[in-house]
Automatic annotation (TrEMBL):
Its EC number is 5.3.1.17. Pathway: Glycan metabolism; pectin degradation; 2-dehydro-3-deoxy-D-gluconate from pectin: step 4/5. Keywords: Isomerase, Metal-binding, Zinc. Zn(2+) binds at H205, H207, E212, H254. It comes from Ruminiclostridium cellobioparum subsp. termitidis CT1112. This is 4-deoxy-L-threo-5-hexosulose-uronate ketol-isomerase. Belongs to the KduI family. NCBIfam families: PRK00924.1.
Length: 287
């Protein structure tokens, strides 16, 4: 497990491009038959992936967590952006298809990931945060029928925003949040831009009560996203390619503009789960 320390905004404004990428950009995700994990000291979030191709991948704590098992003191959110897959949790197997998600609560011990077809493997994206109590483990589906251990995303949690004129026509799909899937602190979802739109989260904002991680995907090899971060009056940018993630501290704006439309997963950790709790930054104040 790779460890990333927290960073002060006073220091970040002096970073070189290389240092900025080293601290905040996560590359090398979705490696075949590997679990890749990055532990950030910023709200103790773990960002990672599991890409099973030839067999099952077992999620273990590793010595970095000083825990008997991965979710001994944590909760976990998962979204599959690849082919059909399966997650087995303490003997129960869940079929997790493309764009399905899962919330796995504190105390789950035996967790493994598998693909239905190794030639089109599942790509499980993971966000994990510290937890203080156990909430039910559930499979999260965008469409279909709810049932025991299965939640379907509510219509009010599929929000269409922006416009083509402002280059930010997008659909926000909320997976883990209060009132739909309960968690201790983790909030998670996905935003898809419509063709012709390239901006996400503009006008931008900060939120002192939580941090965020973005995973960008559905980006062709020849395309990229400019991820903007930093204090509103001291902005910086990171060039992000397909299936790369960016850690965003609570003091930083977080916005992106792509060379074409793309999709991203956002995961938030902190003391406040209210989706609309954000401090807006006026366009005229950005520098």
């Amino acid at each position: 497990m790779e460890i990333r320390t927290a960073a002060s905004p006073k220091d970040v404004k002096n970073y070189t491009t290389e240092r900025l990428r080293e601290e905040f950009l996560i590359q090398g995700l979705f490696r075949s038959d590997e679990i890749k994990l990055v532990y950030s000291h910023i709200d103790r979030i773990i960002t990672g992936t599991a890409t099973p191709v030839s067999g099952k991948l077992q999620l273990t704590a590793g010595e970095e967590l000083r825990a008997d098992y991965f979710l001994q003191r944590r909760e976990l959110g998962v979204i599959n952006i690849g082919g059909k897959g399966e997650i087995t949790i303490d003997g129960r197997t869940y079929e997790v298809n493309s764009m399905d998600g899962m919330y796995i609560g504190l105390g789950a011990k035996d967790i493994s990931f598998a693909s239905r077809d190794g030639s089109n493997p599942a790509k499980f994206y993971l966000n994990s945060t510290p937890a203080h109590r156990a909430y039910p483990t559930v499979l999260i589906k965008r469409e279909g029928n709810a049932g025991e251990g299965v939640v379907v995303i509510k219509a009010e949690n599929k929000v269409e925003l922006g416009s083509l004129e402002e280059s930010n026509h997008r659909v926000i799909c909320k997976y883990i949040l209060p009132g739909q899937v309960e968690s201790c602190q983790l909030v998670m979802g996905m935003t898809s831009l419509k063709p012709g739109s390239v901006w996400n989260t503009m006008p931008c904002h900060t939120h002192d009560r939580r941090m965020e991680v973005y995973l960008y995907f559905d980006i062709p090899e020849t395309a990229f996203v400019m991820h903007y971060m930093g204090e509103p009056a001291e902005t910086r940018h990171i060039v992000v390619r397909n299936e790369e993630a960016v850690i965003s501290p609570s003091w930083s704006i977080h916005a992106g503009a792509g060379s074409r439309a793309y999709t991203f997963i956002w995961g938030m950790a902190g003391e406040n789960q209210a989706f609309n709790d954000m401090d807006a930054v006026a366009m005229k104040d950005l520098k």
